[in-house]
Amino acid sequence: MKIKTDILLRVYVAYAVLFLFAFAIVFRIWQLQFVQGKKWARMADSLTTKFVNVEAVRGSIYSEDGSLIATSMPEYEVRMDVNADPITDEVFGDKVDSLSYRLSNLFRDKTSAEYTRALKKARSEGQRYFLVQRKVDYNQLKELKTFPIFNMGRYKGGLIVLQKNKRILPFKLLASRTIGYYVQDVKPVGLEGAYNEYISGKTGKRLMQRIAGGVWMPVNDDVEIAPVDGSDIISTLNVNIQDVAQNALLKQLKEQNAASGTVILMEVSTGEIRAIANLMRVAPGQYEEKYNTAIGAATEPGSTFKLASFLVAIEDKKFDLDDTVDVSKGYRVFRGRVMKDSHTLKEGRVTMKTVFEQSSNVGTSVAIWKAYKNDPAKFVAGLERLGLGKRMGLQIPGEARPHFKHPGDKDWYGTTLPWLSIGYEQTITPLQTLTLYNAIANNGTMVAPKFVKEIRYLGKTVQSFDTKVLADKIVSDRTLGKAKELLEAVVQEGSAKVLKTSVFPIAGKTGTAQIANGKLGYRGNLRYQASFCGYFPADNPKYSMIVLINEPTNKLYYGGAVSAPVFKEVADKVYATQLEINPGIEKQYVKNTTMVPVAKVGYRTETEYIYNKLGISMSGNTKSTWIHTAKYDNAVKMAEVDVPENAVPNVIGMGLQDAIYLLENAGLRTVARGKGRVVGQSIAAGAQIIKGNTIGLELR
To answer: Could you tell me whether strands 669-674 and 694-699 are parallel, antiparallel, or unpaired per DSSP bridges?
Structure first.
């Protein structure tokens, strides 16, 4: 009995110990969860770290003339560790008002008192990652580092700076769709998208720590793995030509109240695109680049396609330019469908040359019908020999697939051949049409349009792009000569006489196409696409160009009246600025004349460089960064321009670019009026600089 009691006692003791142990565990869990939960949660947060990607600075995109057309500007997010150990209560109390005052003056978004309250509240709440300001530029950041507390040093002042990169287009709308953009997981657009692999560089890594409230802050000021900046793209675009093309197009779109328009200018021998403008109406009288219709929109081209029809027939020796065709009625019926001319030619029978230069639909379709009605596949095969019907493999994405019908297709009808010959029942992009015309100007060699010349990293060429030849010879020299004769005749005697007034010869073809109205086809409210495609100078082609204007509504809709004037304006301005294609201008150098030019007040190194290139001697031993010049016999004398550090500089006599450089680096904002050199400044030279003040400049 004693043994049994002893055993039970031991069991009870064991159960009691286990119960107490279990109770202790449950109690501890409850204590950790509900009593000390917040403490341990904060500690867990403080021990949580991870690496995040640090974006590299994207490479810039330059035009072929060296202008910057897309670049990344650093933009900073500024935060503050309000409870950094070196910021004691004494330091914070003494300097928080001064810091708030400086922040208020710099950003002008809150009063000094509001900043003070926000900083004190953040400190009382134990914040380690207080947001001071987003979208801070470099000059603001530089000034920020001089503020009370922040000027205590890199780590002691609690200043946390995160750099982000903002993509900007210095020339705004100029070729914006061709320059494009890149957004992750979105179909790439333009040069930014096509060359993102080069432009984007390599991301870096930064160690981040999660603090109270689930906010992540950097563990160190410096990134752990530095990002590698992207490469630069040298495009074929020319900013000056692009500006001329876009403004000429915009002016005509407004005058004609048109829905949209496109201009493309290509260098004949290389295929380099010098200008590409795509404007679309977004509001009455307002146009923007919304879509790159030049490469992405395949439409029925209309009469500009007649060149292809003539090339095929002449190459196949189906007719010659002196052969005649009857167009006396101004219309012809093909299997119950009526083909019409926009205007009836006076003669009953006319030559094929007249048919082309007057853009006769009837003449073209009758000739092609007679030549290929028994073998339409041969005509289509001839079009394919010209490189039509397939993509060209452009350097930028988005090229639309061209299409024309083939005999045997479900939608090949008895009337398809005559309508195909004049640019209907098919689709092609403006750039594909231009490439065909460019091949004629290039003596039969078809080259692919080129948008990028080379890729550079830190100024060194990484990859260059040669001209891509699509076809060495699209037609024989015989056909080529006749095609050039036809294109020149359109301007001299035909539907584009408006271009005859230019001081240099132009060759090309007008086009006027009806735009299908959905299921109604070409019935109901008719809409038109007016175009002109050609090259210049016709006797020694340097550039080819196409102009398309969609849905003009001010009664004019023919290519010769609507698009040809835009072609002329762009061509005239390009010709006037290109000495190598303008034989009437003899180059004259300053050093061959007795007149000595005097430069504006400006940067000494650049001024000396120009005078040295002109062979003009300079006197004066000043080493000043900024100088002004004066004529001295047959030389130029330079004198020093004093630029004080803490006072408003004297910019009178300077060009606008140099004046803005000096004033804005001094912390002033500039507003200019007029042209020429600076003749007046609203804040006198020598006055004390107040950061952020505006100074007005008068130029004359």
So the answer is: parallel
